[in-house]
Design brief:
Layout lengths: L3 E4 L18 H11 L7 E3 L7 H5 L4 H9 L5 E5 L2 E4 L2 H20 L5 E4 L21 H12 L5 E5 L6 H6 L6 E8 L21 E6 L5 H19 L3 E6 L18 H16 L4 E5 L5 H24 L17 H14 L7
Parallel strand pairs: 1-2, 1-5, 5-10, 6-7, 6-9, 7-8, 9-10
Antiparallel strand pairs: 3-4
Helix pairs in contact: 1-9, 4-5, 7-8, 7-10, 8-9
Bound molecules: zinc ion (ZN).
The site of zinc ion has 7 residues, from loops.
């Protein structure tokens, strides 16, 4: 069994978007409660986060924007966007959330752990260079990727974003570079409106942005199919030195903000595919960062299924007889016709850039 690093901090509870908002501190409290009764608790090692430095934030965000968010410390409540706000503690929470994602990446880059999961908030993947949106202030996963490129001189980082919403901020951060391969499977059309198939990157980054927009109603087999037919062939060829995951759990069938149909155990099955990929290119080296997920039971079940898979490892999971999907090639009868159609179109558009397609 593997030991897995986890990142938590009381500061993450202090950020609020106001009462009755779906993205609230109780999301992390639910995960804490699940962890306190988690059967493999001894395999989880709490590692302390730190604050991201100004220079680390600046690799992704405009100086003037960072200063604007910093200034929210002076008011008890600042509305930044129709659905994104800050309290006087939110800046502190946000720079530590970014630092938490960095420390999760560092935990695996240093070789201390094969995998890490940062349970942070505010989430990050909608945050643009100069704009807070979609409950996000700083783009945690993008800041962690930029850190890995800079501090460890990496040349190839994969960001796999399985949150139900498209990670517009992350995509834009690395749209023109081949040093980050951004892969997103998301509901479309849906918030935030980006993530079309033909958004494939620009300049040196052409072919290094991969969007799989699904109409809604897709379930476990559809997601596994998308991973097998799009992500894995591209990522094997890319051979990332680090795998970062924007781990949202709002693809669950009970999520109140979206219309997908995944079940809790499927997150572990997606994780197993990433472990299989990591085993071939960057032993271990998977760092996940929490994004969305607004049904509390779905969130804690999903996180538990990911952690169980990380702890047991790909080989162990296989020996346990649970990792492999029922349909071995991911081409089983449960994959919807429109999912196949989208996958075919994504492969057609990206085929000029990837031999494996
Ligand atoms: Zn989301």
């Amino acid at each position: 069994m593997n030991q897995i690093a986890i990142v938590r901090d009381p500061l993450y509870l202090k950020h609020s978007n106001g009462p009755m908002h779906p993205e609230g501190p109780e999301r992390l409290l639910t995960i804490d409660r699940m962890l306190s009764g988690f059967p493999f608790r001894d395999q989880l090692v709490d590692i302390p986060p730190r604050d991201a430095t100004f220079a680390e934030l600046e690799r992704i965000h405009e100086q003037s924007y960072i200063r604007r968010i910093e200034k929210t410390r002076e008011s008890s409540f600042t509305v930044l966007d129709p659905d994104t706000s800050a309290t006087s503690d939110s800046y502190a929470a946000a720079i530590r959330a970014a630092g938490g994602a960095i420390e999760a990446a560092e935990a695996v880059l240093s070789g201390r752990f094969p995998a890490a999961f940062a349970f942070v908030r505010p989430p990050g993947h909608h945050a643009e260079a100069g704009r807070a949106m979609g409950f996000c202030l700083f783009n945690n996963v993008a800041i962690a990727a930029a850190y890995a490129l800079e501090a460890h001189s990496l040349k190839r980082v994969l960001i796999a974003d399985w949150d139900v919403h498209h990670g517009n901020g992350t995509m834009h951060s690395f749209y023109h570079t081949d040093e980050v391969l951004y892969f997103s499977v998301h509901q479309y059309p849906h918030y935030p409106g980006t993530g079309r198939i033909d958004e494939i990157g620009g300049g040196a980054g052409r072919g290094f942005t991969v969007n799989v927009p699904l109409a809604g109603g897709q379930g476990d087999e559809d997601y596994l199919y998308v991973f097998r037919e799009v992500l894995l062939p591209i990522a094997r060829e890319y051979a990332p030195e680090l795998i970062l995951v924007s781990a949202g759990f709002d693809t669950h069938l009970n999520d109140p903000l979206a219309g997908m149909g995944m079940t809790g155990g499927a997150y572990g099955r997606l994780t197993a595919l990433l472990q299989e990929l990591a085993g071939g290119c960057c032993p271990g080296r998977i760092a996940l960062t929490l994004e969305g997920g607004y049904d509390r039971t779905a969130l804690s079940d999903g996180v538990a299924s990911v952690l169980i898979r990380l702890i047991h490892g790909h080989e162990g999971a296989r020996a346990g007889g649970q990792a492999e999907p029922e349909s071995p090639a991911g081409t089983g009868a449960h994959v919807q016709a429109d999912t196949r159609q989208v996958v075919q179109e994504v492969r057609r558009v990206l085929a000029p850039f990837w031999r494996g397609l």
